[in-house]
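Listing S7. Sequence submitted for prediction.
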Amino acid sequence: MEATAKKGYLSDVEVRILGCLIEKELTTPEYYPLTVNALTNACNQKSNRDPVVMYSQISVEQTVRGMRDKGLIVEVDGAGSRTRKYRHRYRDLTGLSHAETVALVVLMLRGPQTVGEIRGRSGRMHEFDGLEEVTRTLEALHERDPSLVVKLPRQAGRKENRYMHLLAGEPDIDEPAPEPSRAGSALVPEYDERIDKLENEVRELRGEIAALREELKTFRTQFE
């Protein structure tokens, strides 16, 4: 069931649509703005999405109309086409920097993420210089009024805290889980970091391949 937006916040569907529009603007500008069909495909991607959803085109179209009425989305005429296309106005409305926008989009499309995961999963949109730049970017998003991200309590078995966007409202945060015992930590930190880096690189490569497939599928639908 599609989540209903809390007062003053976006619904989960609106967050996914907005995130997809921003992502496609940055990764495939040649296919942007997006038609409702292309936007639906972007929302329902199985790669680079968490959670994976299956929105109907009718649901996406209805939500787009509501977002257009809110001023978040603008309808534009497709060059040489009668098909309606849509682009977002989020950066115009918020004045976010490019790095801030990218970090936020990763959270919008992938759910809560660590600093390292954000850096590893944003490469096609922005190359962060390092983890410190990601941290500064997240702090800037948190210090906005209202805050756009929150740092979640560290989970048991995790070395790092995760961050979550606040576009859909404040999350229900449980009490921090107890820290795992030292005896349960068998990996040397430097070795563990290398594993995390390799895993992020593999996920990024898989995501790029899947994204290229989705882009090719979207490109083909324009000629059907």
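Caption to Listing S7: primary sequence and predicted structure tokens for the chain studied. The radius of gyration is 18 Å. The longest strand covers residues 73-77.
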